[in-house]
Automatic annotation (TrEMBL), chains A, B:
This is Heat-inducible transcription repressor HrcA. Transmembrane segments: none annotated. The lineage of its organism: Bacteria, Bacillati, Actinomycetota, Actinomycetes, Kitasatosporales. Residues 103-321 form the Heat-inducible transcription repressor HrcA C-terminal domain. Negative regulator of class I heat shock genes (grpE-dnaK-dnaJ and groELS operons). Prevents heat-shock induction of these operons. The gene is hrcA. Residues 34-62 form the HTH deoR-type domain. Belongs to the HrcA family.
Amino acid sequence: MLSERRLEVLRAIVQDYVGTEEPVGSKALTERHQLGVSPATVRNDMAALEEEGFIAQPHTSAGRIPTDKGYRLFVDKLAGVKPLSSPERRAIQNFLDGAVDLDDVVGRTVRLLAQLTRQVAVVQYPSLTRSTVRHVELLALAPARLMLVLITDTGRVEQRLIDCQTPFSETSLADLRARLNSRVVGRRFTDVPQLVQDLPESFEQDDRGTVSTVLSVLLETLVEETEERLMIGGTANLTRFGHDFPLTIRPVLEALEEHVVLLKLLGEAKDSGMTVRIGHENAHEGLTSTSVVTVGYGSGDEAVAKLGVVGPTRMDYPGTMGAVRAVARYVGQILAES
Amino acid sequence: MLSERRLEVLRAIVQDYVGTEEPVGSKALTERHQLGVSPATVRNDMAALEEEGFIAQPHTSAGRIPTDKGYRLFVDKLAGVKPLSSPERRAIQNFLDGAVDLDDVVGRTVRLLAQLTRQVAVVQYPSLTRSTVRHVELLALAPARLMLVLITDTGRVEQRLIDCQTPFSETSLADLRARLNSRVVGRRFTDVPQLVQDLPESFEQDDRGTVSTVLSVLLETLVEETEERLMIGGTANLTRFGHDFPLTIRPVLEALEEHVVLLKLLGEAKDSGMTVRIGHENAHEGLTSTSVVTVGYGSGDEAVAKLGVVGPTRMDYPGTMGAVRAVARYVGQILAES
DNA sequence: TCTGGCACTCGGCCCGGGTGAGTGCCAGGA
DNA sequence: TCCTGGCACTCACCCGGGCCGAGTGCCAGA
């Protein structure tokens, strides 16, 4: 429906606007891009693009700026993903290689992404749902007080205190620990419930209550803690947002502080492949003037969590997408190694 | 050196400026406060205060605003700490009481402080140096791979992976675990090194290497991890900073993202009692237009960490100090209970 | 020592004209 | 049919001038 040239015009508008942050006019366009036609022709094309809702004028007699719909078309049809330069790739690898534990990996990733894209970075901790159990440990802190420690293959460690009604002997504890581990180690979290279902029955009558308590805490940890954690960084980049500051930045900062909101945002994105949500496509109203680029990452072929950046709709999509994808890949590698 | 009334004038200026965010003139002052003298007299006092460097004019023929030195005098001599209302106290307690683990306590505290003071809140995790050991656990993940889990009285849990050169038998492990715990449980971190010093000698020749490795990892955890963690929140409140936004807010956001900077900041504060650092008193240049109010908190009488808020020098000092102190107290209680 | 009066300063606001980028439309040409 | 150059028009932005008023410093008198 739109001629080849009109698409070209749209691409040029997006590129120029992203670069200059100012409405772009027909004359400037023809000067900066070899479109092969005169400004007048471009004006006609622009009128058509505006008619279709891809671009808009802030006010009469100003240049055009892309609308959310325009960016959408740009991202879907016109823009590729810009691969990083090899020095950049090396820098990423070096930077991430120094990480010592999971917190450090996530922390470094956030800083890296923020620096690379000059935007706000969001990194979700590897999810518990997709991971497998590396080890379950039970400690007796006091006769009727246990601690459950869960170690995952992604390096995450969760611990829970358990108060039992009745004291639990050290031998029973060792027994439970051994049986528990033999059943769940190496298994997926989602499989654990049915694997331990009949475990209480194999214990003495006296201990069954405690065993059940322990198991229910374990299952709670698996399920409830699917409520994920995440880390954000690069909020200082928000100051490059625009000139009409306080109004724009405030709701964004508020949204970013609500990790629940961000987790929902990440949850809405596709599990595999890259997702770009532009402006009003974001449900949360604080983020309607931002775009969110996310991608899943994981230690194997399957994504265990997501990461991405939040920036103005007027962002360098190809570059941002390239950086996000590359970082996700390297983080995946790091996780696989550890 | 300054008469009683001049101090009163300074107090009035600070209060008005904090309330209105606008330079305050002599006439407005006499109208809003019962100083008992005329504007002309106040003008003379203001001239004297300006001479001494406590207040300044942004430009000729404007009202006066307090300088850092003026705020300093205000905080030291003129302002008390405003206690919270009892509904506020109840709200704090209710809010903090719902916390389930240490992360949750710290998270809730940050949100609470940010909300209460309407500023940026910073909460340091309870320090390892001052705390005592609740339990040390050793798990064999693989024949030559151990995991060390350290649980503190403040609810903090640290874990470390240990690769041993030689396999370590389950009995030796149990032995080490038992001896280790009998020596260090309930002890201060600082005392641990000498308490475990002679431990390797009591083991078989074959195991000594591994025992030493384990101990050195334990000591590392104690010492090296004195490098603290912290959590911040309420950055959206920065938008209430001023009208000259981008310039002011940017360096602050940058400083806040550098946890190292914040930890240094907290480290410079007094260990006991409240510390208020005003404007240029803060070493970090991003924070020279902010004031930082901090106080130590702990589960007992001794402070194990600090918390505080970062806000514009033009802040409500009595109210902020009251909120910070109250929150610190309640957090201390919560930690003592758990 | 305080007070009222007075002249002065200067930032903020409003107004009006000039400027220029950008547009829409139209008639003519490939 | 599509592109092009020309032309009139619109409107945000810039700039300078004038008014206003809050606030000051100083001084003489109580």
